[in-house]
Write a structure and sequence with these properties.
Strand content: 35-45%
Shape: globular
Number of strands: 26
Distance between the termini: 56 Å
Helix content: under 10%
Number of helices: 1
Radius of gyration: 32 Å
Mean pLDDT: 74
Length: 373
């Protein structure tokens, strides 16, 4: 039996010898199998691609029945599998042969893996694609691509990236460290070296962020990337030597640091009832706000609920919400009331410069994502 070559035609022969009472029949089948494996993305982008098997199989056979000892008659007849003249034994062997062939092909395809991103050679041209037609990113040369994310210096309205070397027109993208890694802010850079690039943020949901370099491969000047469907996005991450060009930094000076035992929030998936979201437990060290937002593009979006509370502890707290159509994903976040008392001083379009900031404990924002039905 020959090893199967996917995408090519291979042959192997299975020989069966059923034993009769008066004679021995030798049945030989020749099976032609052509197969091709294609890597297709899963519906969930965080899972690996899976193999789609395409198989064409043709079976031909012949039987030869030698005469018993002392007889002078020999015969050979061609058998067309699946025809009415095929013997029951031959049909059974044909089916068994087909099953063996398919099992061999499936075993070969099961060993296939997603191709690793290839490193690029010299030159500034960025390439996309892989052997399976799927793109993890846009491959670029290490000699013409670099990113120094710095220390996450927060300025009014955004952060500053100390240095970026772009192999072509690209995007500096600030992404959330909370799955699926939604986009918090972008800044477009042209080919070449740039220093002290400001990136304005339109959302923030973590004390740490990822700064990544994405290629501008779609409509020029329009950032086309969906964190929920990265493989289908046009402006994919830039890849150098098999790794995305990115770095994780802390947002220095953002948020209100608190000890974990002084700011706590517990909420769970629930059925929306009475136009309110139920908070199982809340503990805050002082005047605070509980904000409920829709999750849009993987990050906090439209605010649908807001509740003020002084310092203390609450159980089974209800936050009225509006504009929520189940099923929906929500994020509940607790903010310190540091601006004008009784006024929620938070600007969604300028989260880093807002006076009312979320509590952070051990580097994590005091928030919880839930689903409502």
């Amino acid at each position: 039996m020959f090893p199967l070559q996917l995408g090519q035609v291979s042959f192997f022969t299975i020989v069966g010898t059923p034993v009769g009472r008066l004679c021995r029949t030798r049945t030989t089948f020749q099976i032609s199998v052509s197969g091709a494996a294609q890597m297709r993305p899963r519906a969930e982008e965080h899972g690996p691609p899976h193999a789609i098997l395409l198989v064409n199989t043709r079976i031909t056979g012949s039987t030869k029945t030698p005469a018993p000892t002392g007889l002078h008659t020999t015969g050979a007849r061609k058998v067309r599998l699946g025809s009415r003249t095929t013997s029951r034994t031959s049909s059974a062997l044909a089916r068994a042969a087909l099953l063996v062939a398919l099992a061999t092909v499936m075993a070969a395809v099961g060993c296939a893996q997603e191709p690793e991103p290839a490193t690029s050679g010299a030159g500034s041209d960025m390439m996309g694609g892989s052997e399976a037609g799927m793109v993890a990113g846009v491959i670029a040369s290490a000699r013409e691509t670099a990113l120094d994310p710095g220390a996450g210096i927060v300025t009014r309205g955004g952060i500053v990236v100390p240095r970026v070397l772009a192999p072509d027109d690209c995007w500096l993208v600030v992404r959330s460290t909370v799955a699926p890694g939604g986009v918090l802010g972008t800044a477009r850079v042209t080919k070449g070296e740039h220093r002290d690039v400001p990136v304005m943020l339109t959302a923030a949901d973590s004390a740490r962020v990822r700064i990544a370099l994405h290629a501008d491969r779609g409509e020029r000047g329009a950032f086309e990337f969906d964190a929920d469907r990265p493989s289908y996005s046009l402006d994919k991450p830039v890849i150098v030597e098999g790794r995305p060009v990115e770095g994780e930094v802390a947002l220095q000076g953002w948020g209100v640091e608190s000890l974990p035992a002084f700011a706590l929030l517990e909420a769970e998936d629930q059925t929306l009832s009475g136009g309110a979201v139920r908070i199982r437990y809340l503990l805050v060290p002082g005047a605070s706000w509980v904000s409920v937002n829709l999750v849009e593009g993987g990050v906090p979006g439209t605010r649908v609920g807001l509740l003020s509370r002084s310092g203390g502890e609450w159980q089974e707290l209800l936050v009225p919400v509006e504009g929520v159509t189940p099923p929906a994903e929500l994020v509940v976040t607790v903010y310190a009331d540091r601006g004008e008392a009784g006024v929620f001083d938070f600007k969604p379009a300028d989260p880093l410069a807002s006076k009312d900031q979320p509590y952070t404990a051990a580097g994590l924002v005091v928030s919880h994502r839930i689903r409502v039905e």
